Amino acid sequence: MICPTCTYDNLPGAEICDRCHQDLTQLDRPMASNRVERSLMEDPVSYLNQGRQPILVQTTTTIPEAMQVMLTHNIGAVMVVDEQGVLRGIFSERDLLVKIAGVHEDFAALQVKDFMTPRPEAVQDSDTLAFALHKMDIGGYRHLPVVENDRPIGIISVRDMLHHITRMCEPGVPHN
Known about the structure:
This protein folds into 2 domains: about 1-30; about 45-170, CBS-domain (Roll). The protein has 5 helices and 6 strands; from the N terminus they run αβαββαβαββα. The protein has helices at about 35-40, 65-75, 95-100, 130-140, 160-170, and strands spanning about 55-60, 75-80, 85-90, 115-120, 145-150, 150-155. Helix 1 crosses helix 4. The relative contact order is 0.16.
């Protein structure tokens, strides 16, 4: 790492210049080279979550009721909350396919609490889009709850991310 103050060639990853003791930590941070990268690195999750109310079901909601909610709202997952509104899990299309379809013939009385993914990874409105995308990638999640004090305030999906990135690639679209 070359020091911008004295041009000394420091070891890669050095935090302070060995010659002039200049702070080099800011130089190690990734820099956005286009507006998509800038948006991912700077825009908060709230940018994707604007004005949308979270779609919630109770832990005691039946599988058919949860399926109907998902169909009605054209969504791939619902967040599962307890009586106090605290996030307890997420119930998705994948849960339906893997845990119920072909396994339970009569699922009319089954409740989502028995098939949801408990304690899902979540993000906050203030987290960056890059942080959320990284969580989705590492965990293999298609939906990520947005929480405030353990209560869901929204959800973002891979579809939301893809739509946002595609929009940022269009010419003439302003960046926030």
